[in-house]
């Protein structure tokens, strides 16, 4: 996994970055909440270490998502995930931080398809409880209503060329919700 994009022309590089960011922005109208989940992982020094960190982080994040979907939708998220599951657009931030500082890797999520009976306080508590089950999680979460600038904010490292920060492995869009 390269830390940044390979050496290509500036125009080609900008085109690739723009397409990744545009893909995230395609779902702006469906995003209800902005979530930040902190970890205790200091950014890696080498690409190989970063690849390992991202792999472990993505596995643990998948566990978190499954637990959260279970709490929100019960077994419906297993039977009909295209309808009864959260829209989750995760981005890992912090890979470009110095490995010698105090800043850590963290997730930014654009979250949607949250049923109306889950208010901000209830959803925040569920997110915190489930995030605490992740072994590298810090007890530091932030959940708030999403504003129009959230998607732009979370693509900061992508715009700097670090396209691996978008966690497509855990990207989930319940497609039947798009047609409702």
Q: Any idea what the shape is?
A: globular
Percentage of β-strand residues: 15-25%
**How are the strands of the biggest sheet laid out side by side?**
2-3-1-4
Considering DSSP H and I runs of 4 or more, what fraction of the residues is helical? 40-55%
- Compute the separation of the termini in Å: 38 Å
* Structural class determined from secondary elements: alpha+beta
Describe what this molecule looks like in 3D.
The structure is a single chain. The chain has one domain (about 15-180). About 40% of the residues lie in helices and about 20% in strands. It has seven helices and four strands; from the N terminus they run H-E-H-H-E-E-H-E-H-H-H. The protein has helices spanning about 10-25, 45-75, 75-80, 120-130, 150-155, 155-160, 175-180; strands spanning about 30-40, 85-95, 105-110, 135-145. A four-stranded antiparallel β-sheet has the order 2-3-1-4. The longest helix has 27 residues, at about 45-75. It is globular. The model has no long low-confidence stretch (mean pLDDT about 85).
Quick gist of this model?
By secondary structure, this protein is an alpha+beta fold. It has helices spanning 10-25, 47-73, 76-79, 120-131, 150-154, 156-159, 175-178; strands spanning 31-39, 87-93, 106-112, 137-145.
Please give a handful of descriptors for the protein shown.
180 residues; 7 helices
Topology:
Blueprint: H1 10-25, E1 31-39, H2 47-73, H3 76-79, E2 87-93, E3 106-112, H4 120-131, E4 137-145, H5 150-154, H6 156-159, H7 175-178
Antiparallel strand pairs: 1-3, 1-4, 2-3
